[in-house]
Specification:
With 69 residues, the protein is an alpha+beta fold. 62% of the residues lie in helices and 13% in strands. Strands 1-2 form a two-stranded antiparallel sheet. α1 crosses α2. The N and C termini lie close together (11 Å).
């Protein structure tokens, strides 16, 4: 998977979240909670892409740190 493909996937996932959030109004945009959720979405897409490509996932006590490049 290329960096461009990963960024595209993250953008689509953010778009879907924003659509859902616009309907529910659960999390106000431009708040700390909103950006924390966006960060979790980006990490989840990255982890899914790495798993799909057979790469190792590195988790530490501090959280997700990526994987093999």
């Amino acid at each position: 998977m290329t960096r461009g493909q990963l960024e595209y996937a993250q953008g689509k996932a953010r778009e879907l979240f924003n659509r859902w959030n616009d309907v529910t109004g659960l999390v106000p945009e431009c708040t700390g909670y909103y950006y924390e959720i966006i960060g979790c979405i980006d990490d989840a897409v990255d982890i899914g892409a790495r798993v799909a490509c057979g790469q190792k996932i590195i988790l530490t006590e501090d959280g997700y740190k990526g994987g093999e490049e």
